[in-house]
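User: I'm new to structure prediction. If I give you an amino acid sequence, what do you actually give back? Let's try with this one:
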Amino acid sequence: LNWNASYGTTESNEPDRRQVMYQRTPEGYKIFRLNQQETMRFFGSLNEHETTASARATYFLSKQSNKENTLNFGAAYRNKNRDYASHKYYYAYKNSFANDLVISDIYTPDFINASNIASGNISIVNGTLPKDAYKASMQIAAAYADLAWNLNQQWLLNVGLRGEYATQTVNYFNDAGTAKQSEIKGFDLFPAINAKYSSSARNAWRVAASRTITRPSFIEMAPFDYKESYGSATIRGYADLKNAYNYNFDLRYELFPATGELISIGGYYKFLDKPIERVQEYSGSAIQTFRNVQQGQVAGIEAEWRKNLARDWKAGINASYIYTFIKLPEDGVYTDSKRQLQGASPYLINADVSYNPQWGKNNSASLALVYNLRGPRIYAVGINGIGNVNEKEVHTLDFIGSWQLNTKAKLTFQAKNIINQSRILQQEVADTGKKETVGRSKEGIKLEVGFSYSFY
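Assistant: Good question. You get back a string of structure tokens that encode the predicted 3D arrangement of the chain. For your 456 residues, that looks like this:
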């Protein structure tokens, strides 16, 4: 019998995000006065609490060809709650006063002071609305059972069934300030079957089929407006989202030339029922929201190779080609009658080189350089004649290191996104065949140092 329980809390604060919108003119940079709501100070806070618990029991049925046949059964519970609120303060000013403004002086005492406010040169407006806050919760209670049965020396069969009763709720305010609630509630069954055939210890065939679920995230369900950064599109959730269901089929062949080495090739197919996609709304500004589409299909092939180069040195590469297709209603609002799945790239490549030395009984290190190539993809789907927003291919390079000091203490270091390539978004201009760049950003290089200590 195995059991575990956990509690986690997440807190996120944007204490004072300041932004200014300006226009470039022959005379220099001027305050953009047609949309003064873009010159603002933003305060946001998020608090989230999550509790999980699970128990799993294993019953040993018998032995077949010196291998255990087992029956596993268990239960799990998850409870997650989120509280989010934001506040906005807009700055308005007289036209004659704005003409003399220096952009860098706006958020200084030379600009924001009692004299300018009293004279009417500047006014500060609290733009916070009821819809700028929401509360969300999710509870999932599950029970499951799975059987692992060795039919003979070559065949292993695993059959499982999981039942989940889930409730997901978002409490929010609409544009009129009326309190609303969106809820997804129901019971689902998720069967799975896996079979493995091994003619020897050096190779294996695997086949699998399963039904899984994709639940909308809180931000996808909560209809409030949020910008991840200045100049980015406004993200607005959609209260009527439904769960999406996935029917998965996989076939794979694996060859093990030596210990720690692998050559594999496989294919897979997924049928998607009501998949969730990000869409670009028809609006005067860039607003992106989320919708369920009717159905979709995904098919792909994947190859992987892992090799021991020398003592403590390893390398690997994984490549995938992916075909996706979305079926859209004939009388729908989507600009394209057929297209690929939003967020899906037609090809993916991952490669790594690692060095894993060990000295002494309890001391070791792991150093890895990891490369990833993600092909171009639809970032947001266009509707009502608006073209799709596409993201160009992205290259990333990460360094991941760890040092096991002893049996209990461990140091870690990560440098992510070392290349720091620009993420470029381009939108198709309807009926012209042209593409316009609508977004360009860099995520920056992320450095992380960690220390962990085990007390048992």
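You can read the tokens as a compact description of the fold. Here is one thing that stands out. The longest helix spans residues 114-119.
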